Amino acid sequence: MSVKIRIKELAKGRKSYYLDIYQNGQRHYETLGIYTSKDDSAAVRKEKKLIVDRIRAERELELTGAEYGYTPKNKSKVNFIEYFKLFLDNYTGKDIRLVRYSLEKFLIFIDKNNKIKGHQGLKGQAKLDYLIAKSNKVPCNRINPKVCQEFADFLKHKSGLNGESPYNYFSKFKKLLKTAVRDGYFQSNPCEGVSVKRINGQLKKNILTKEELSILFNTDCGNAETKRAFLFSCFTGLGIAEIRKLKWSNIKNGKLDIKRAKTSQQILNTLPETAKKLLRKRGKTNDNIFSLPSDTAINKSIKVWVKNARIDKHITFYCARHTFAVLLLSSGTNLKTIADAMGQSSTRETIKYLNYIDEEKSKALKGLPNLF
After folding, report:
1. Cα(132)–Cα(15) distance, rounded to whole angstroms?
2. Are the CB atoms for 352 and 203 separated by under 8 Å?
3. Angle at which helices 165-182 and 96-110 pack, to 10 degrees?
4. Is 214:200 a contact under the CB 8 Å cutoff?
5. Hey, which residues does 342 pair with through a beta bridge?
6. Is the dihedral of CA 259, 262, 264, 267 positive or negative?
7. Are 344 and 261 in contact (CB under 8 A)?
């Protein structure tokens, strides 16, 4: 095992220090973010070199200690919350929102005595920032297999999540810990052997039938704009995020042209006649097509609206997107076309709609009379 200092020549006489690390037959490099320039004085250059030497020595000590099962105290006592936040800040994957929600749920979980108040009315980044600011320090050495198992159980049973969300959030938590092990904050992964079972191919949201859509269309809703947006979503598959930012510039020659907020996949669909009529009179290019209240207010309006229509189903705005998929599938549309129409990158998510159709067919067949 060796840790050596290397220097990379940069433009305009600048130089960058980095570490060349060879361990267990593998070599990798770590940048230090320390640079020198031709304008640096001899004293400055000497000071920077001393810093680099100290970093090299500390890194060598960490790696040597790791070989004998030792985690330096300075790392084992680092605030795990701060490390989690740093991981989030440097995360570049398209699923960064899952990392953010994983951190949010972990902060709520770790606050076992419910000392943090006032976050319930907050959303998004504001909620996360508030939780971080109010949280207590959680040293890395407190994160053990028991805590990991308790967090997994919390996500499954006490977080209010359903569907694949517990699995998705915990998978990001495990990815974080894997990175922390590599960075020397843990000798071994405390999440090893702990898992949240993935729910594959099951549709957890209720679906509206053609008949129920017709009933809703002819039933008054407390918020007319919510009604119009929900029905538009049933015939386009747009989620609430796309509906909120939908402008007239996204409607071109009878076609819908917008990116799915969750996946950044392009959606380019011909609008059905019903969807066109729900748009009403065309406005200015940059005008929003819908003016909606908060998500909570929307779902409250939908709940009352569905109840008044005497439809015995738990319906939220997101059910409109699922309804769109099942309507297409029922009409004979293939999975790849449905995935494209919904802005999904693959048919992996779309398969659950096929399973739903099969389940409904099975129920219908079981309901046939027995003549013998």
Report:
1. 37
2. yes
3. 90
4. no
5. none
6. negative
7. no
Fold entry, domain 210-366: hpI Integrase; Chain A (1.10.443)
Which amino acid type is present at position 48? Answer: K
> Do 131 and 119 form a contact (C-beta atoms < 8 A)?
yes
The DSSP symbol for 153 reads H
The residues, ordered by sequence, that sit 6+ positions from 64 with a Cβ below 8 Å of its Cβ are 1
**Closest listed residue to residue 173, CA positions, set 262, 88, 75:** 88
DSSP-H helix ranges across 208-350: 210-217, 224-234, 240-245, 273-279, 295-308, 319-330, 335-341
Report how far apart, in Å, the C-alpha atoms of 239 and of each of 34, 119, 255, 260, 294 are.
46, 25, 17, 8, 14
Other CB atoms closer than 10 Å to residue 260's CB: what's the count?
A: 18
Kindly report, residue by residue over 187-233, the tens digit of the pLDDT: 889 999 999 987 655 555 588 989 999 999 999 999 999 999 999 99
CA distance 338 to 320: 14
- State how far the Cα of 151 lies from the Cα of 106, in Å rounded to an integer: 7
What are the beta bridge partners of residue 53?
Answer: none
Q: Is 275 helix (H, G, I), strand (E, B) or coil?
A: helix
Q: In what order do the strands lie in the sheet with 15-23?
A: 2-9, 15-23, 26-36
- Digit-coded pLDDT (tens) for 311-363: 998 899 989 999 998 888 888 888 888 888 888 877 777 777 766 666 665 66
Quick one: which of 10, 2, 51 has its CA closest to 29? 2
Where do the structural domains in the chain lie, given as residue ranges? 2-70, 74-182, 210-366
3-state helix, strand, coil split of the chain in percent (to 5) is 50, 10, 40
Burial class of 289 by CB neighbour count within 10 A (0 to 12, 13 to 18, 19+): buried
DSSP states along 33-91: EEEE-TT--HHHHHHHHHHHHHHHHHHHHHHHHHHTT---HHHHTSBHHHHHHHHHHT-
For residue 56, give the nearest of 20, 22, 10, 110 by alpha carbon: 20
Question: Is there a contact between 277 and 283 (Cβ–Cβ < 8 Å)?
Answer: no
